[in-house]
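Quick one, T. Sequence first:
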Amino acid sequence: MNIRKKRLDLSDREQSVMSVLWESGQDLTNNEIAELVTARGTAMSVPSVSQVTKKLLARDLIRVKNLKQTGTVYARTFEPVIRKEVYLQAELERIRKVMSPDSFQGTAGIFRMLLVQGANKKWNQDEKRQLREILKAANEELAG
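Structure tokens:
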């Protein structure tokens, strides 16, 4: 799949469905998706989930994996076509371009916003250690 040709901007409802599919690690029916989305605090009916999965199918972001017997009928199960990391990378790239057409300035802006300007965040010792490791690895990569 060529990620550059796919439109990955997702509505809130589409993100909810995709998140459940990504995090479940298994293919799910519309009923199961509705239950899991609702359990997370966003009420979503089965007909609403059906509308969303139809759109995601049309955009080739999910696919039908199987048929599963539910009572006396069979229901399609869905799985994501793209990995969560691919989606997040595309989102970060989109945000970077919004922040600045210059690649470095946009990346620096995201970094500053997440790490420095998130002033309400108090970093614990483990988080600080992990951040130092990330910065050290990035510094080595830039120097190399």
